[in-house]
Amino acid sequence: MKSLVLLLCLAQLWGCHSAPQGQGLHYRQLNCDDPEAEEAALVAVDYINQNLPSGYKHTLNQIDKVTVWPRRPFGEVFVMEIDTLETTCHARDPTPVANCSVRQLTEHAVEGDCDFRLLKLNGQFSVFYAKCHSSPDSAEDVRKVCQDCPLLAPLNDTRVVHAADAALAAFNAQNNGSFFQLEEVSRAQLVPLPPSTYVEFTVSAPDCVAKEATEAAKCNLLAKKQYGFCKATLTEKLNGEEVAVTCTVFQPQPEAPQPQPEVADVVGPKPAADPDVHVPLPSDTAANPQASPPLRRVAPQVLPWHRAHYDLRHIFLGGVSMESTSGEAWHLRKTRAVGAAAAPAVPLCPGRIRHFKV
Question: Could you tell me which residues belong to the region Disordered (predicted)?
Fold first, then answer.
């Protein structure tokens, strides 16, 4: 009898150790071309463009990976990796990104690489974690498609700065009664033949006319700031320089609220690369399934002075980690999760390329 009892105890002990610790937690590997995955990716891209303080809007190019996890007590969390491409619409341009042209390879394209986490509640997506960076196409790849195409130039190059100043002066001279100030140089290329500098830059309008604007500090900026976007070419000639400039002035836009100073030290949760990653959600979301978890941006960083493009890494650095009072959270236990389907013969990801691969 004692032997039988001991055998039963050993069997129960073995069963306890062999039972999956993540039992009941089922994640699903979603097809990257699934409409639900694309809907989440488009929300993520919209989030990028809504928070761009500078540079150019981005559009979705490819969904690399998407995993969907349940979130207790409500909703699902979409963990995604996406690729984007820079468009020709500046961040200040109110044109919807769907109507913006993609920057082509011959124009020295820029690609974005982003990690996102989105919460889906009642059919609605909201971003609560984001991390991005972007980089221009390599010079070698540009040369493969266009041997003579100019490459991106550092925005602090003396020729670039001079071209922007000369173009702005020419534009102001063409617009009597108005005075625009240089906001930023956004893109520049040095063209060898004919020797010229191509530059794109943004301007803003203060609330004073040109004759009163001899000192820019005396001009108060409008409550609803008016911006413009300019493209210019300064061509070097034997008898001097020739400047051709065109600008589009946008309707006045309210100034976006600046991040609070205390946000600067917020550190976002680590990407889900570890086998056991704990990502807490805010208390108001746990109590109210209708609430969307906020993603707080870091304070603007000082951009590298020698940069040739606006890197998406300067928008936000992940999310904010907030523990709920009820202890509700979702866990990624990739090595212990049960119910995950075996990998199909045909990979579900990455998805289709919408434009071109950089």
Answer: 252-277
